[in-house]
Amino acid sequence: MQTMQTPLPKLSFKEQMHQAREDAILQSTCQLLGEKAFDTMTMDDVANAVGIAKASLYKHFSSKEELCSAAMVQILGRVQAFLGGLSEDMPAQDKLRALVRWSLERLLAKEMPLLPSRNSSLRAQLMDNKAYIDGLIAVSDQIGQWITEAQAQGVINPELPPLVVLYTLYARACDPVVSFLKEGGLYSDADIVELVLRTCFEGLAAR
Amino acid sequence: MQTMQTPLPKLSFKEQMHQAREDAILQSTCQLLGEKAFDTMTMDDVANAVGIAKASLYKHFSSKEELCSAAMVQILGRVQAFLGGLSEDMPAQDKLRALVRWSLERLLAKEMPLLPSRNSSLRAQLMDNKAYIDGLIAVSDQIGQWITEAQAQGVINPELPPLVVLYTLYARACDPVVSFLKEGGLYSDADIVELVLRTCFEGLAAR
DNA sequence: GTCTATATGACGATAGAC
DNA sequence: GTCTATCGTCATATAGAC
Q1: Which domains does chain B have, with CATH numbers?
Q2: Among B158, B195, B203, whose Cβ lies nearest the Cβ of A200?
Q3: Does B157 contact A119 at a Cβ distance shorter than 8 Å?
Q4: Per residue in A33-55, pLDDT tens?
């Protein structure tokens, strides 16, 4: 990923190894959080996925909550990278649709952690994590801008509060309809994305 | 609820007490499953809520899974009772909207258990529970009938597969947008219901 | 820093007195 | 059938050797 590390002061081999190991841990954690919930994912799962001893995890992260918070920050980074990569001159509504499409694809690939559920002990930790909060605000601001833009153009319903639109878009990243349809086996992944995308933007009622 | 018990052969006081205790356990379990997930709810929670010893729970239900399955069946019964209480001559789409409205109100009151999540050990147990499966099929058939009816009338988008519509309606019973908006504190419960209902049926795009 | 081994605590489930 | 007390298991986290 990071092929342009030369400007950084050179890292010792030890530090590079440390960093690489930590990246591997985070990568496995992101994957596992996409497959199961925070509560059911265990540190043994992570250790086995990375291929190191469980105790070694605690040399990098002081608790399960801290590890998963770091993973969530990494996920947020990917979202920001995706948002930043969208063409400037794309209409606002198309950017919103592209975002939802991308979220659904991540969800189908089990790469996107479910949003922290209400009673998870992870939630409290995340709300105290400045990097997470800052990232979440940055993402929300960017999307919120597109929402108001699309509403000004009259393509997104201007009567809906932007916050409601934002949350409705966010919720697609953990939409259970995706797994229902997936388990049914009747539709391809591409079909599922299109169907959920359509019900999200066009609604169930006929037009 | 059941005021017409006279046709049943008379229950001994002991049996009545047994039944009453069991109803209380189920009632508390339904409430708790509305507040937290299956995995985070403990048998101690249930025992404390009912006001009995944990061991006593196991005289009524042989396992946590069996207890929660029975609770889910009870919830399904409430759904069926609600569906059956809807006026016969109400247009199909209005029945669907009434169902979603009711689901959202239950969710706001924390009375509706979240749908069994993907990796919960409850899921497997539920799929082996005939009463649950039968109830789920009955509910789905009833709603499916209204969906095709509304599609034939052209008020629900006829291009959407009925199964997609059904799942989209089901998913409102655990829509995270509700708790997001609730925690934001900007909207009343009634506002939240109307906003989610509108985005569900009318979509985000302007009409 | 990595490992093996273990401390600590939570929770589902059971034993046995009453 | 209800209780108190306890077992067995599993998961987080730590101790201590290397």
Answers
A1: 13-202 (1.10.357.10)
A2: B203
A3: no
A4: 999 889 999 999 999 999 999 99
